[in-house]
Amino acid sequence: MHVDPVSQARRLAHDRFPDALSVILAGSTAAGRAKPGSDLDIAVLIGDGGETGRETVRFEGRVAELFFHTRAGLAELFAADVAARRAVMQSMYATGLVLVDTDGEAGRARALAEADLRQGPPALDQQTVETKRYGLTDALDDLADADDRLERLAVAGFVLGSAADLLFDHHRAWSGGGKWLPRRLVEADARRGAALLEGHLSLCESGDPSLMTGAASEVLDLVGGPLREGYRRTWRGVIESVAASA
């Protein structure tokens, strides 16, 4: 028997948060791409006396991720997502389906989310970019020298992530993890993003690193080129590890 996930989300929100100021259903369900096993991603704005948090529950047989927050808590979450360069919560509010909107609360939160998304993430500082360039350069050297297929696969994952970070920053585009990495890579740069993904796929399937090396090298050239000699960091309590083997 088919159960409408949007109706489920409404019932869950009413059951758990009857006094919610706003409720947003996000993710694949809101976009109409839900599968039978898809979970419910629900953002709930509650009164100022409540708590901000996250909880995973099962409701009527379906897993649901509940993101609940006060106005102040939502502002903190937005700020944290900007700092992390991912804007996860902003995307939920900007693209989700409004289930509850008390006195325009959902609309105001959506406007703030859309403003963040339009502005984009802050640029990485020069030292961080250099560290990422050095790490990617080193990993590409390792990829060329790797004889062990398992090591090659591990290094390839590092190359994909590092090149993606640099490409996102070059375009001041929001990054993503998991299934959102390929989606946002192609959004940020359709040609170079697709080349990175296809190169990674080719290496995983055939073991041949040439396509991936070419795609990652193009990203490096875009942001200043390979960096080996001349890279230097002084100990200040923390030095970010950039070696793929670290």
Provide the number of structural domains. Answer: 2
CATH architecture of the largest domain: 2-Layer Sandwich
Strand count, sense and barrel status of the largest sheet are: 5 strands, mixed
Instruction: Give the termini distance in whole angstroms.
Output: 50 Å
Arithmetic mean of pLDDT: 93
User: Count of helices?
Assistant: 10
Total beta strand runs: 5
Strand content: 5-15%
The portion of residues assigned to helices is 40-55%
Give the class-level CATH name of the largest domain: Alpha Beta
**CA-based shape:** elongated
- Under CATH, the homologous superfamily of the largest domain reads Beta Polymerase, domain 2
How is this fold's topology laid out?
Layout: H1 5-16, E1 22-26, H2 27-30, E2 40-45, E3 53-59, E4 62-69, H3 71-84, H4 88-95, E5 97-101, H5 105-119, H6 126-145, H7 149-170, H8 180-188, H9 190-206, H10 210-222
Parallel strand pairs: 2-4
Antiparallel strand pairs: 1-2, 1-5, 3-4
Q: How would you portray this structure in words?
A:
With 246 residues, this protein is α+β, with helices and mostly antiparallel strands. The chain folds into 2 domains: 5-119, Beta Polymerase, domain 2 (2-Layer Sandwich), CATH 3.30.460.10; 126-222. It contains 10 helices and 5 strands, in the order H-E-H-E-E-E-H-H-E-H-H-H-H-H-H. The chain has helices at residues 5-16, 27-30, 71-84, 88-95, 105-119, 126-145, 149-170, 180-188, 190-206, 210-222, and strands at 22-26, 40-45, 53-59, 62-69, 97-101. It has a 5-stranded mixed sheet with strand order 3-4-2-1-5, with helices on both faces. A hairpin with a 2-residue loop joins strand 3 and strand 4 (62-69). Helix 4 (88-95) crosses helix 5, helix 6 (126-145) packs antiparallel against helix 7 and helix 7 (149-170) runs antiparallel to helix 9 (190-206). The radius of gyration is 21 Å and the shape is elongated.
